[in-house]
Amino acid sequence: MIATSRTLTPAQLRSFREDGYLVLRGLLRPDEVRELLENFMQMHAGGRIPGCFEPKSSEDAQGDILKLYPRMLHPHRVNNVALRYLLDERLEGVLNDLFGEEPLAAQSMLYFKPAGARGQALHQDNFFLKVEPGTCIAAWVALDPADRANGGLEVVPGTHDMDVFCPEEADSTVSFTRDYVPVPEGLEVLPVDLEPGDVLFFNGQLVHGSQPNSTVDRFRRSFICHYVGRSSERMSAWYRPILDFRGDEVTMEENAGGGPCGVEVAGPH
């Protein structure tokens, strides 16, 4: 892949620091979006990948479309295309600016979110990654148009400056995950519409989530990567091995235990 250097402007950095998120439009080219889509749909067609992709049969799914199209966890560990984009130089340049230091790669995921799929309740990423000191940053790559109809992402600006909240139980009829963070008083949920190739970067403390995909024929596929700064000292062991952008493994102390809420799990996010 030919990487294009990209340096954030002072206004972009200020926007990220004030709001907790930043959208870069068209960071990936249309041919690169097609490559990622084709790659992940081929992986889906190939069936179960232990530890990464665990679909159910139509009979076992019992009408739950997400059991036919579950998210892929850490596809970069088994797939070279996913690894290449996780460590893309354009992401590295942006993340270096956002962290103010060398970024390290901790996780990749692929969400299919087909028509009729439930959403994901409002939550904070660092509740799961447990990065200390500091927090993580996500790079959320839209592979389909992501809007309100098909369950595009929603964010709560201002929460990035807050601590990790102890979540409540989510409504399982609209969210496939169990943890829900209510919107703090005085703040509002803001939908973020994205086009294929757009990348949404956001702070690990930022409360965010999505509504169900209410369309009848549209996916909302997204490739999502999580990163930490080089100065981070501890994080959940489930996200290892941690990689630098050369692909070399980086050692970091495990952040063990349940965390401040006592219910955090070092598992899939």
Can you offer a commentary on this structure?
With 269 residues, the protein is an alpha+beta fold. It has one domain: Jelly Rolls, CATH 2.60.120.620. Helix content is 21%, strand content 23%. It is built from seven helices and 16 strands. The protein has helices at 10-19, 30-45, 58-61, 65-68, 80-86, 89-99, 126-129; strands spanning 21-24, 72-73, 103-111, 120-123, 136-142, 153-156, 168-169, 179-180, 190-191, 199-203, 207-210, 222-229, 234-235, 242-243, 249-250, 253-254. The strands form five sheets. A six-stranded antiparallel beta sheet has the order 1-10-5-12-3-2. A hairpin with a 5-residue loop joins strand 14 (242-243) and strand 15. The longest helix is centred in the first third of the chain and has 16 residues, at 30-45. It is globular and about 45 Å long.
Summarize this entry quickly.
With 269 residues, the chain is of the alpha+beta class. The chain is built from seven helices and 16 strands.
Total DSSP E strands: 16
Strand content: 15-25%
Structural class: alpha+beta
Low-confidence stretches: 1-5
Mean pLDDT: 94
The end-to-end distance, rounded to whole angstroms, is 28 Å
CATH class: Mainly Beta
User: Per CATH, which architecture?
Assistant: Sandwich
Name the CATH homologous superfamily: q2cbj1_9rhob like domain
How many individual helices?
A: 7
Describe the strand arrangement of the main beta sheet, using strand numbers: 1-10-5-12-3-2
Major beta-sheet overview:
6 strands, antiparallel
The arrangement of helices and strands along the chain is HEHHHEHHEEHEEEEEEEEEEEE
How many structural units, i.e. domains? 1
